[in-house]
Every structure is written in structure tokens, then in C-alpha cells.
Amino acid sequence: MKLKILIFITGLLYTFQLAAQPSGDQNWNTTPFFYDQFNPPRSNWSNDHWMDYPNDNKWKAHLSGCVTHGEYEHQVYQKEYAVFNSSDSTIQLQAEYAGGLIDTSDYTIPVGGNKNPDDSVLYYYSGAICIGQTGKQQITYGYFEAKCKIPVNCGAFPAFWLWGETGDPHNYREIDIFEYSWETTTNPENYREVGTPRFFGGQIYYYNGAKPEPVASRTYGRYRYNIPSYEPDLTHWHVYGLEWSPGRVKWYFDNKLVGSFVGDSIPSAGMNLVLNNAVDNWAINNQGLPITDGFPNEMSIDYVKVSKLKCNCGTDAVIQNNTQLSAFNFKVYRNITIGGYGYGIDIPSNSHTVFRATNGITINGNFNLPPGSSLELVTHPCPQ
Is 242 helix (H, G, I), strand (E, B) or coil? Predict the structure, then answer.
């Protein structure tokens, strides 16, 4: 179609057509900020801080400083349950029933770590990893991606997520890239079959313990996704992705956009990256006893990757013709002006093009967006 338009966008997302794949956004750096394929030799954890050793200490074998995680979960994270598998270059987060109630004398806490004071009864051992490399404990904004196979039994609660505090221990923020739980699959809004291995989701969450309910916590930006019957279920390899940029979150499954949220309430401070194989309340039966069906199980992870946006936020960019468009160095600029110099601008066929700026994007003159192509114009603060 031919468009003759003048658009100036500030503080908004303008989308002609939803993106099909995150790889279509050329503003992301092709060199990952963080990348681990779990290639050997990776065999053990240090005895004190539980860092992967003798490599570059990318990971901790627990949730930052914690080996437990509150009243709704029943596992203790121990380093022996985060297993580097050299035969296929993966890491396996294993969960198993302990044979009975776990006492504090039955597990180890790393130096500087702690036990969550709000713990429920603990019946299972499990594995978790959190980014631990010096200077990379927290990440602000990025494209986060992991390739995983997950358990789907009753009580299994595997997840790939971000969390952070703002300096106040009562002020907590979380972005769930994906979670699986029988609670998720029985969400009454979706009327799903109990325990289906095809349904999962994620959300954005905050908690402020200094305020009474209902203000204290809120879940928003939620997505839920049901895998079509002709595709493999969650026990097979899938790629889970999330774009987190200022005021904008987009969720992907196998490079397909499955959810999005835009708004000022999206977290803007650094967060920790975690993958864990938790055990939730569905593992406790109606008599208050732990179940053993489905255990032991494991969450397998093939790789974890984090990319950052390229930024030149103090510079304006101008695209006068198709030659300049084909050679354009996609980054976050201050202002972008497209067209208006006596030449037509043609977005390539069957492409997804994204322009990002901190102040505004102007399109004028003859502008062609062909059928089958998509265009996003995005303005947000500089993500640095």
C-alpha cells in the first residue's frame, strides 16, 4: 500500500502490524550481553558460595541468597540438584521427594545465604540457578531467551523469571518470562483441562509489604498461551523469550509473539535472572501430605542468552531514500526522520522493521508498506 503520511510519535507505541519474530528487530545487538550454552567442562560447584567452578562463575546454584522460597513452595534448593550434563551440554534442575519432612539439619546454606523466614513445610530437594558473575547480578532491560524442556506433573512449578528489589526489602518487583503449574492450567478464566502439558503463562508482579492488602500486591500484564495440538507439548524443547525495554514487555514462544504489555508500571530498575524447578502447593494432597507421583523430575536447559539494545541516544538519524534505508544502522536514536526529501521510502517486502527513538519519530513524503510487511515505531527513554 502507498502511504502519504506525516507522523510524529512521542511516548507511544505505534504498530502497523504486530511483530512476528523478535529477530526482526535489528536494534538488538547481535553479540549477546550474556550467553551460556553449558558446554563442558562444567562439573561442579564451589563449596562456599555455590558458584560454578572452575569456570567464570556465571551462575549461583540457588536464588541469590536463598535456598527456600516462602509459604507456597515446598522445596529446598541444593547445589547437587543443579547438574551439568556434559553428554549433551545442558544443565538439569532436578526435583525429588526427600522421603519425609526436611529439617534444617538436612540441608546446607551457602556462605552469605539464608533460609526464607516465611517457609512452609519442606518435602522436596530441587535445583535452581541465578546469574552470579561479578557485575552481572542484576540486569536492566534486555531480550532474555532460554531453550528448555520442563516437567508438567502435579506439583511441578518450573519457571524462567526476573526479580528485583528497589533498595527497600519490602518493595519487590518480578517479571515472569514463563511459569508452569497446575494452578495456571486451571485458571477459571481459561477453562483449561487440569494438568494439561500445553498451557503456561507469565506476568508482571509487584509486592510492597509495607502496605495492607489489596494494595500490597498486584499481578498485571498477564499472558496465557495454549500450544496447538499439532505442536510438541512442554516436555519437548521450546524457546522462551521476553523483551523488556522501558515501558514495554513482550513475551515470545518459539519466536512467536504470545503476549505484550505497555505502560509506566513496568519495572525500570535492575533485576536478577533465575531459572528454577520449584515444587508448589499442588504437591500437597487433601490430607496435607506430600505426593510422590511425578517425582523425581527435571527441567533441562540447553542455553540462556541475554541481548541488549544498541544505543546512540544523543544523536538524530535521517533516512532520505531507499539506499540509506538499506544501509541504516538500527539503534535507539534521539530523533528519527524518514522521507520528505523528494524520494519515496519503501519498506522491504515480507519484513518486520522497528525504529526506536527517545524523543520522536517523523515519517513524511511517499511511504510504502507492502502487504506482508510490518512496521513498529517505538519511543522510550534510553535503555542504558
Answer: strand
The structural architecture, per CATH, of the domain 34-307 is: Sandwich (2.60)
Helix, strand, coil shares of the chain, percent, nearest 5, are: 5, 45, 50
Residue 233 is placed in which grid cell?
A: 507439548
- Strands 345-346 and 366-368 come out as parallel
Give CA separation, 234 vs 179, 180, 252, 256, 325, in Å.
11, 9, 14, 15, 40
pLDDT at 339: 87
pLDDT of 6: 37
H/E segment holding residue 305: strand 297-307
Sole residue written with cell 501430605 = 289
Return the C-alpha cell found at 114: 539464608
Among 250, 247, 252, smallest CA distance to 266 is for 247
Ranges of each domain in the chain: 2-28+310-379, 34-307
SS3 category, 366: strand
Question: Which residues of the chain are modeled with pLDDT < 50?
Answer: 1-21
Find the helix or strand (DSSP H, E) in which 178 lies.
strand 171-179
Distance from C-alpha of 182 to C-alpha of 279, rounded to nearest angstrom: 11
- On whether the CB atoms of residues 324 and 348 are closer than 8 A, the answer is no
Predicted local distance difference test score (pLDDT) of residue 3: 37
Q: Which residue, 144, 145, 332, is CA-closest to 244?
A: 144
Q: Hey, what's the torsion of the CAs at 307, 308, 309, 314, to 10 degrees?
A: -160
What local confidence, expressed as pLDDT, does residue 177 receive?
97
Rounded to a whole number of angstroms, the distance between the first and last alpha carbons of the chain is 36
Burial class (CB in 10 A: 0-12, 13-18, 19+), 144: buried
pLDDT for res 332: 97
| pTM for the model | 0.90
